[in-house]
């Protein structure tokens, strides 16, 4: 990194200090240091700014970090989900049809971000919402089995809030049933199961680098895959359906098959424009190097708060957080029948300077948008309903201090005391 860019960043920081959050304990904070901003400046000044060599370097580094055959950088985690599903819905070779056809069913969690579900519908398939375990936040093998039908062709698994789903058992179920497995790891970068990174158990894994996530490229996403042919398909779908960004050998193969088309503008499939930029990749390369320190602090904070929360098991549902969690946030699920609910907890935390939000998007089957999307609900979604009605989360991020840990720990205890008093008063009235 040229010293001139770092010096320029230091001057900018001195002249324009970052505005403080109105919350003493915000959901997230800016993790950019001088190196990230200097890397972005270098890309802006020296070019290229659009997709170029820094994107390729970021993809290679990310694939190495996950033991994946390839990784494809795009403009958001939602786009990563769309790319993965779109690839499955396109021909898999000159003489092979798609893995997903219109009308096929794809099992998805009932508690996840909306864009785990929308791409399934957008390629003409039917999302089937499976229930989740309210203590892990994730789907289970049993809930997936209940969701199976003769039309099931794939499972789009999500690892929620950094907590790994039972992906080994689900991968084995998919293998036995001949189903494609895709993992949404957008909230769970660096989460592990049996020492193996989430995102590498299925055919593809998707990641997000949004501002609040484990590493940040402002907006950005990644798809990792185990088959280089999928990497080619992802790149074709990412950029208009053309071959420009393919590896040399793959690009040459398509050009030989189509000698009458200018190879600079050779389109071999349908596609989108979901490209990321070299400016984003420059930031991502720095953040990727820093992620181990980020993860260490996230785990320390998440485990400390989790121990406090789980001490009040009569007020907060004890969570089952795997040792390999990467602690995206702290989930808080209230016990039923307290007299004080999620709204009261949210208000209590807000009044004490703790930013909070519902757990992801709650039960997506209860969101009005689902009325416009052909879908199927796999049985009662009792776990998802519990999270919809009684769950929320507060943020975990690397800049949290021991004083922050102590603040929330104290507040969790104070609210638990109030909830107990409210429950006792209600019991006395009855």
CATH class of the largest domain: Alpha Beta
Give the overall shape, derived from the CA principal axes.
globular
- Give the class from helix and strand content and strand pairing: alpha/beta
Number of DSSP-assigned strands: 13
* CATH level-four homologous superfamily name of the largest domain: Type I PLP-dependent aspartate aminotransferase-like (Major domain)
What is the fold named in CATH at topology level of the largest domain? Aspartate Aminotransferase, domain 2
Q: If classified by CATH, what would the architecture of the largest domain be?
A: 3-Layer(aba) Sandwich
Terminal CA distance: 70 Å
As for the number of domains, it is: 2
Number of helices: 13
User: Strand content of the residues, in percent?
Assistant: 5-15%
Strand order of the largest sheet: 1-9-8-5-4-2-3-12
Question: What can you see in these coordinates?
Answer:
This protein is α/β, with parallel strands linked by helices and 430 residues long. It has 2 domains: 3-282, Aspartate Aminotransferase, domain 2 (3-Layer(aba) Sandwich); 291-429, Aspartate Aminotransferase, domain 1 (Alpha-Beta Complex). Helices cover 41% and strands 13% of the residues. It is built from 13 helices and 13 strands. The strands form 3 sheets. An 8-stranded mixed sheet has the order 1-9-8-5-4-2-3-12, sandwiched between helices. Strands 10-13-11 form a 3-stranded antiparallel sheet. Strand 4, helix 7 and strand 5 form a beta-alpha-beta unit. The longest helix is centred in the C-terminal third of the chain and has 34 residues, at 278-311. The model has no long low-confidence stretch (mean pLDDT 95).
